[in-house]
Design a protein that fits this description.
There is one protein chain. The C terminus is likely disordered. The protein has a six-stranded antiparallel beta barrel. The protein is mainly beta and 242 residues long. The N and C termini lie far apart (50 Å). The longest helix is centred in the first third of the chain and has 10 residues. Strand 9 and strand 10 form a beta hairpin. It folds into two domains: 183 residues, Elongation Factor Tu (Ef-tu), domain 3 (Beta Barrel); 52 residues, no CATH class.
């Protein structure tokens, strides 16, 4: 069984307390208007997946290919569109709006986001180099990386050498973070620990691939299940009829 993930946005970090009074640092993720806007099938596409969109936008504010694809599919364009490959029993009907109840407290998830960009940084900050000595003849080169040259062979600097350069602003995945809890009313997920990216960044959340998960809603906790409580309103309709 492979369930779909969710598109969320990072709100920030805070602390929550468990029943024993122990504080836990958590990252708050908002599910928002995450909606299933399409499906991929084995017959048509060669694989099975749910297509999710988040943050509804005007057609002029998204890339033209996305706007045309949304128009052909008969759905509204979204700023963020992601495919989650799933098993056959975890296909979610198109148009379903997902909620934080897709996950349960205590389970483990993997999160993926774009890390904060740090700009051009030296090797000490970028790769945790120790730097040179503070004295003994070192002059104005205390934070440099030292020699990078080779001997006669190969006589060049090998590709991949750790040097100064662009730091951050790359896709980062953090595995096995625990879901401390959820807030169905505000549609929030509280994940223990830090999540990559700045506040407001799109974060992809899915079931942890290295942890065995049990008692998860399959394919998700849909709002259709909640409508099962609606028959309680039928007697009111009969009373009005009388």
């Amino acid at each position: 069984m492979k369930r779909s993930g969710l598109i969320t946005t990072k709100i920030g970090m805070t602390r929550l307390y468990d029943d024993g009074g122990v504080a836990h640092p958590v990252t708050v993720l908002s599910v928002g208007d995450c909606t299933v806007i399409g499906n991929r099938t084995m017959e048509k596409n060669g694989y099975v997946a749910n297509v999710l969109g988040m943050r509804e936008a005007k057609a002029k504010h998204v890339a033209k290919p996305q706007a045309v694809a949304a128009e052909k599919a008969g759905v509204k364009p979204y700023r963020k569109v992601v495919e989650f490959r799933v098993s056959d029993d975890c296909v979610i009907p198109m148009g379903t709006q997902l909620s934080a109840a897709h996950f349960i407290a205590g389970q483990f998830v993997d999160v993926q986001a774009t890390s904060k960009g740090k700009g051009f940084q030296g090797a000490m900050k970028r790769h945790n180099f120790g730097g040179k000595e503070a004295s003994h003849g070192v002059l104005k080169a205390h934070r440099s990386i030292g020699g990078t040259g080779m001997r006669e062979w190969p006589g060049r600097v090998l590709k991949g050498k750790k040097m100064a350069g662009q730091m951050g602003n790359e896709t980062v995945t953090v595995q096995n973070l625990k879901v401390f809890g959820i807030d169905e009313v505000e549609n929030l997920i509280f994940v223990e620990g830090a999540v990559p990216g700045a506040n407001g960044t799109f974060v992809l959340v899915s079931d942890a691939v290295k942890k065995e998960q049990k008692d998860l809603p399959v394919p998700t906790k849909m709002k259709v299940e909640q409508s099962a409580e609606q028959p309680a309103a039928e007697p009111e309709a009969e009373t009005v009829a009388e």
